[in-house]
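Reader question, answered in our methods column.
A reader sent in the components of a multi-part assembly and asked whether the whole thing could be modeled at once rather than chain by chain. We filled in our standard form and ran it. Here is what they sent:
COMPLEX SIZE: two components
ENTRIES:
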Amino acid sequence: MPIYSKVELENMNVKNQLKPMAVKMGLPGYSKKTKAVVISAILEKQGAAKAAKAPKSATASIAPAAAKKAMNAIEFCATSVLTKPSAKKGDKCTTTIRVSSGASSGNFPVAGRSVAEVAEFLREVLNIQKMSPGLVNGKDVEGTYILKDGDELEFLKPAGSKG
Amino acid sequence: MNIKIIGLGGVGSILIERLCRFLNYSQVDTSFVVTLIDGDEYEDKNLERQEFTRLGDKAEIKANDLKIKYLNLNIDYIIDYINTDTISRGISEKDIVFLCVDNHKTRMVVSNYCKTLNDVILISGGNELTDGNVQIYIRKGGVDITPDLCAYHSEIATPTDRSPDEMSCEELSKSEPQLYFTNLSVATIMCWAYYNVVVQQNIDASEIYFDMSRMSVDAKTRIVK
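And here is the structure of the entire assembly that came back:
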């Protein structure tokens, strides 16, 4: 398959040219993406293909696994909020963690806090019941557990008793 | 596959009407039996939340009314409360069970019994005044696909309440206030659960919470312990 420059790709039609090209290149999941996202994926794939074809160099031995198998897509969810607008670039935002209790939930900047602290802090906001056990990423944790980026915290709400 | 509805109070009496309408008019094979199970009687005090046409045994009245309305369905009833002695008469292998009772003791008994079966789908709902939840317990080939009702709910695993057949008439006559809209929400979410799990074969969520006063709903995916 020929290698296209970014400008050449930008001049192509997203539906009739770019998306079929992405499929041919083995890039699934781009049928509903924007033109910019599809172009970026194609360029990345072309770069990986070029690297695979290139003669072995000193750097090639550093990441042989990456050269053998190009990454097609990454699926992840991260949320951040602007907490320090005056800070230098890269330090302005704080990663937030999804905290829920029953039907109430929200994203809060609580990474680095213990589960017990968060329960106390968000008790009224999320209607968290006292003694409600915490689950981090679905697993039982103690109140002393310190939350990390990427964690999801749930305070178990008792089941409804009536009917 | 047969369908069992246990409990015909505020949630069950609303749910059964919607479920039977869906089953009767959808393109599903209707060779199964829908069995209504409740040992309680419908009284005047239930009028504001429960849908019945006359006084008497809830299971019998509702089953007879539904038989007239939904001619494609085989509808049966059992006038009894579910407890450890009666449960084997109420639930069998491959059943789809809608649990709409008003106490955790019965939820615990039903969940533990379903755990002894190979294939069963249990959809259980409950509520407080303005909020509630629906749990989906699926067992396939003797393996839990989603957690049982007790796994994440110690209040169900070790209930402090009692089932209706263990309570005195005085205790039964005292009931905490409930809202028709909250019962309706539980019944609706139980219908969502049925549609997703049975019709669409989609088991992304195993517990759904709602809170009417906050106008919010949240579905949880839980790990089988």
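What stands out: The radius of gyration of chain B is 16 Å. The CA atoms of residues 182 and 206 of chain B lie 20 Å apart.
Send us your own complexes using the same form.
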